[in-house]
Amino acid sequence: MSLTVDGELARSFGLTAEEYDKVLAIMGRTPSLTELGIFSVMWSEHCSYKSSRKHLKTLPTKAPWVIHGPGENAGVIDIGDGLAAVFKMESHNHPSFIEPYQGAATGVGGIMRDVFTMGARPVANLNALRFGDAENVDTRRVVDGVVRGIGGYGNCMGVPTVGGETNFHRAYNGNPLVNAMTVGIAQKDRIFLSAAAGIGNPVVYVGSKTGRDGIHGATMSSAEFDDESSSKRPTVQVGDPFTEKLLVEACLELMATDAVISIQDMGAAGLTSSAVEMASKGEVGIDLELDEVPQREANMLAYEMMLSESQERMLMVLRPDRTEQARKIFEKWELDFAVIGHLSDTGRITVRHKGNVEADIPLGPLADEAPIYDRPALNKEPPAYLTPPADPVGIEKALETLIASPDLASRSWIWNQYDSTVLGQTVKRPGAADAAIVRVEGTSRGLAMTTDCTPRYGQADPYVGGLQAVVEAWRNVTATGAQPLAMTDNLNFGSPENPYIMGQFVQAIKGMGEGGRALDFPIVSGNVSLYNETRSDTGLTSAILPSPVIGAVGVLDDIAQAVGLAMPEEGELLLVGETWGELGQSLWLREICGREEGAPPRINLVAERRNGDFVRQKIRQGAIKACHDVSDGGLLVAIAEMAMASGVGCHLQSHPRELSLHAYWFGEDQARYVIATSHAEKLMEEAEKAGVPIRRLGHIGGSDLRFAYGTRLDVSHLKALNNAFFSRFMGEG
Amino acid sequence: MKAGVVVFPGTNRERDMAHALTLASGQAPKMLWHQEESVDGLDLVIIPGGFSFGDYLRSGAMAAHSPIMTAVRRFAEKGGYILGVCNGFQILTEAQLLPGALLRNAGMRFLSQDCHLKVEGRDSIYTKGWSAGDVFRTPMAHGDGNYTASPEMLDRLEGEGRVAFRYCREDGHVQADDPHINLNGSARAIAGVLSENRRICGMMPHPENLTDPAIGGTDGLPLFKAIVEAFGV
């Protein structure tokens, strides 16, 4: 490659003129191609968080149970019994549009590596998926590839995929979101970090060989899409879940010894970012000999090796006297193991290849002088509250339409392609409860996990979008009986260079922070994905809906106390929480009236906490047999979902006089739960004492939803409608 | 009972299997790395599920040539008891210890859901925890579970009572041409088969994942209880 390094090349690598000037100042000379590559990936949005860092700092990240917050490969929280939950969510949006199968698969592979890098065995995968309009011809290709890719990787790894969420909206045409979350379990005193230590200690490369795949993936995911994106297919990495399965077993076997000083997976920006991060965090220098790097292709340049995003690779600093022991473990698992360098006291990263020094950069400035932008942010006036529209179709027809719509249809077509039972610890499988539950092996404890976001709320009011994602995740964990402990976030937005998009980002973070603080629900890890925009032939760009996705983890002391959402055989149905009839930005308004308008529902954090704490306490006391939070589609949809999960119906009482029928049944008021109980009287008394609004919904039984005014909807009929969407959409039915 | 669970690179349900055996017998099985060359002294060898060697060539094809399979073959020749589940079933057919083969699911998609099995096989330790005709629920999780064999072989398996399990509806109704009942399209809805001497059994679904009352139920436990009873604890 005989490229001339200059400002123009720097620009094509994604560096601005000012950033390139900074590079020149740091180096005191024109950088080599390899050096320019290193600066460009380390200073990319993806690696440097240059537009988001200032705002991320405002998020609540601490609590007595937080062991490691943001800054490590994943967040770590104390879950009792000397154990820790290690978790994070990460996006693979751009690759998943270009090549859906590999994009999604390597997203799952990457997030699992982040978790087992810290010494945790991955025990659950979740995902949050947002696809384009179900009517768009390309959406089916993306859905098919993404679902196959997630399953292909997770199933082979033997990590159960237990939960997630899926939305469809035209704003994701050409820019789907694939956010993957992994939760692992580790001994809390055996957490492995990335900070390198010990001058002279060997730097060891393990895992797959390095090829030319994925070069400049980090800069690709920091640019918007255009017609040339499909020609970027070679930059999408190819996943090999079998090798990663070997890698997790080999790493965990090695971590049971005392050989590992520090470890970092090679994710975005590959060897560059792992080497730079380990050395910078440890405040040491690092010397790399690229001739020692296991290579899959011939004649690779230093530049290519440093920027390759080949998957299933790890970098470790080992105790020198344990290196041979480590080598034997990796040989047993038939994985490459190579000492590719040493730690130095120079404070520099030095890269040698074929006898030449290809890069020699001071680490301090590379990290410390990385650009940070305080980008201008503008807010749009949030829409006014909606004047309640009349009901054009009637309650029964509206329910039938809603539960058959893409956003509320049964997701079983998706989750039936994911192994959800492997490891033998899955207490609540996908669809069985508001959060998935897996037992902590060898204990009676359970982890409750969910992912949540309602982008249409965020589009109307980004602050509410951020806040609502937090409270819904908290409710979903609560509705199983678990105590919500911490969150990971995946912030998916358009271009931060557009002040209105930047405004969305800033407001969403404000909302998330406020929710986290009010609910003692810190954010311990996360990922930012910006530039989620597509440019059409006419040159116009369109951004996705602001999508601050929350992944949440909670703990149940005894899994026997967990409840699901399926309607029990008998008892009474109650509603916890107050109903005003919020139809602004509701699915009813969109699906029945064809309008995406109004302000999203108001959120009252005091009510959220009070109602949720009450529900959780009653679940733990055994007073509640089933519980479902009220969210998308409102109260009647929540009741129908409970009925469809078991086939048991309910005889519904009439609605409160002060509300119109459709506002009552389909309003998306927050802080509400539908609960099934055999102790309605007592529960109502206790709720009143606790200041928790509660009302009777009806008597459980029969096989239909029966309204007070006499009409009935057969549960099996609803179920057929609910199940129809995916097979029809995929042309398989 | 001395049981061993074979672990190939890529095996991923060995812990589930060990958990089920421990629940049924009170003792943990021995884990056998694929490079071991002997399985002597064991009562039962279990080949669990997963993606051995990534299933990259063909499911189970590479594992069938692992060093331990030579030992397993010898073990079989001496009349040893072997259970293969999911990838284990695929490996046993690739190793020709069981007849037939497992093709890609008829719907061309991975299937992970509960199914129902009808117990048929006679005189085997794997089926005697139930009565013939009993129906039990069990999870399945596979991409290549579509059982196939020559019509002559299928006739023979049926004639000799060597069809251990068939996919069925909750009420026991078997219908091979109904994709909602015979989910992966297996020939004659066969979910599990027995060797001629009835000591080797292969099956696709995962009874080991329904053995713990805290994890969804114990519908699969009779299989393991019966095995333990056959050999004594």
TrEMBL record, chain A:
Residues at which Mg(2+) 1 binds: 90, 527
Residue span, PurM-like C-terminal domain: 199-353, 570-703
Reactions that this protein is recorded to catalyse: N(2)-formyl-N(1)-(5-phospho-beta-D-ribosyl)glycinamide + L-glutamine + ATP + H2O = 2-formamido-N(1)-(5-O-phospho-beta-D-ribosyl)acetamidine + L-glutamate + ADP + phosphate + H(+)
Location of region: Disordered: 217-237
Residue positions binding ATP: 49, 88, 489, 526
Enzyme class: ligase
Amino acids binding substrate: 91-94, 113, 237, 309-311, 529
Pathway(s) served: Purine metabolism; IMP biosynthesis via de novo pathway; 5-amino-1-(5-phospho-D-ribosyl)imidazole from N(2)-formyl-N(1)-(5-phospho-D-ribosyl)glycinamide: step 1/2
Protein localization: Cytoplasm
Catalytic residues as annotated in Swiss-Prot or TrEMBL: 46, 92 (proton acceptor)
Binding site for Mg(2+) 2: 114, 265
InterPro entries named among the record's database cross-references: PRibForGlyAmidine_synth_PurL (IPR010074), PurL_linker (IPR041609), PurM-like_C_dom (IPR010918), PurM-like_C_sf (IPR036676), PurM-like_N (IPR016188), PurM-like_N_sf (IPR036921)
Residue ranges of every copy of the Phosphoribosylformylglycinamidine synthase linker domain listed in the record: 10-50
CDD domains named among the record's database cross-references: PurL_repeat1, PurL_repeat2
E.C. number: 6.3.5.3
SUPFAM superfamilies, A to Z: PurM C-terminal domain-like (SSF56042), PurM N-terminal domain-like (SSF55326)
All residue ranges annotated as the PurM-like N-terminal domain in the record: 71-186, 433-540
UniProt keywords, alphabetically: ATP-binding, Cytoplasm, Ligase, Magnesium, Metal-binding, Nucleotide-binding, Purine biosynthesis
Main function: Part of the phosphoribosylformylglycinamidine synthase complex involved in the purines biosynthetic pathway. Catalyzes the ATP-dependent conversion of formylglycinamide ribonucleotide (FGAR) and glutamine to yield formylglycinamidine ribonucleotide (FGAM) and glutamate. The FGAM synthase complex is composed of three subunits. PurQ produces an ammonia molecule by converting glutamine to glutamate. PurL transfers the ammonia molecule to FGAR to form FGAM in an ATP-dependent manner.
Subunit structure: Monomer. Part of the FGAM synthase complex composed of 1 PurL, 1 PurQ and 2 PurS subunits.
Family, as annotated: Belongs to the FGAMS family.
Protein name according to UniProt: Phosphoribosylformylglycinamidine synthase subunit PurL
UniProtKB/TrEMBL annotation, chain B:
SUPFAM superfamilies: Class I glutamine amidotransferase-like
Main localization (coarse): cytoplasm
Catalytic activity: N(2)-formyl-N(1)-(5-phospho-beta-D-ribosyl)glycinamide + L-glutamine + ATP + H2O = 2-formamido-N(1)-(5-O-phospho-beta-D-ribosyl)acetamidine + L-glutamate + ADP + phosphate + H(+); L-glutamine + H2O = L-glutamate + NH4(+)
Alphabetically ordered keywords of this record: ATP-binding, Cytoplasm, Glutamine amidotransferase, Hydrolase, Ligase, Nucleotide-binding, Purine biosynthesis
Pathway: Purine metabolism; IMP biosynthesis via de novo pathway; 5-amino-1-(5-phospho-D-ribosyl)imidazole from N(2)-formyl-N(1)-(5-phospho-D-ribosyl)glycinamide: step 1/2
Compartment(s) of residence: Cytoplasm
Any single Pfam family the record assigns to this protein: GATase_5
Its EC number(s): 6.3.5.3, 3.5.1.2
UniProt key word Hydrolase: yes
Record-annotated active site: 86 (nucleophile), 206, 208
Function: Part of the phosphoribosylformylglycinamidine synthase complex involved in the purines biosynthetic pathway. Catalyzes the ATP-dependent conversion of formylglycinamide ribonucleotide (FGAR) and glutamine to yield formylglycinamidine ribonucleotide (FGAM) and glutamate. The FGAM synthase complex is composed of three subunits. PurQ produces an ammonia molecule by converting glutamine to glutamate. PurL transfers the ammonia molecule to FGAR to form FGAM in an ATP-dependent manner.
Oligomeric and partner information: Part of the FGAM synthase complex composed of 1 PurL, 1 PurQ and 2 PurS subunits.
Protein name listed in UniProt: Phosphoribosylformylglycinamidine synthase subunit PurQ
Encoding gene, per UniProt annotation: purQ
